[in-house]
Amino acid sequence: MASIFPLANNKLAVLSALSTTSLTYTTVINGFFMDYFGIPHVKSYLGPFPLVLDIAAARAAIPGSGAVPIALTYSFDIGRFVAQLLQAPKWEKESVIVGDKVSWNEFLAIAEEARGVKFEVAHDSMEVLQQGKVTELPGQKELYPFFPKEALQGLAAVFGVMMEKGFFDIEGKDVGFKTKTARELVEEAWKGK
């Protein structure tokens, strides 16, 4: 992953350093933040990040085939998971939480059903993504004063490549409580809107 997403090198360096100590630690691994697809209609402390689906605008820019499963996790479930870990007598080196796994094509169908409209859909090929480009979504334009278009497109393209290559197809484990599903979040946020 670090070869595609260089920022991962920082995390890998920290984990490498930790592995040489006697400290007890765990690294929390979660799916892509599900919150982004419910903002502003679900509780979240994340800002908007219209990537792949702009549900408010009924538009989609699907990376690649859209058929690869993507792990998604609601941030409040991650918070509950971390609080639970702090009470655990022992930690594994990796603590994984996945709220749901769906492909982008499946997620698109959920969003269209909740909104009751057919979305305008583009599929960005791997060739286009590897050039650092994606189909622009309307909600992205609002971010350009804070996150310039070229940088946002580049980040979205990198995520698209990683998603299509299966980097977000992670296996979750039983976390001891019910996590929010993509359908639950999208219906809560967008049904009838």
Plain-language structure description:
This protein is an alpha/beta fold and 193 residues long. Helices cover 37% and strands 16% of the residues. It contains seven helices and eight strands; from the N terminus they run H-E-E-E-E-E-H-E-E-H-E-H-H-H-H. Strands 2-5-7 form a three-stranded mixed sheet. It has a three-stranded mixed sheet with strand order 3-4-8. Strand 3 (53-54) and strand 4 (59-63) form a beta hairpin. Helix 3 (104-115) packs parallel to helix 7 (182-190).
| Strand arrangement, major sheet | 2-5-7
* Element order: H for helix, E for strand: HEEEEEHEEHEHHHH
Low-confidence stretches: none
CA-based gyration radius:
17 Å
Mean pLDDT across residues? 93
Could you estimate the helical fraction of the residues in percent?
A: 25-40%
How large is the share of residues in beta strands? 15-25%
Biggest beta sheet attributes: 3 strands, mixed
Distance linking N and C termini: 37 Å
Structural class: alpha/beta
Shape descriptor reads: globular
* Annotation field: number of helices: 7
The count of DSSP E runs of length 2 or more, i.e. the number of strands, is 8
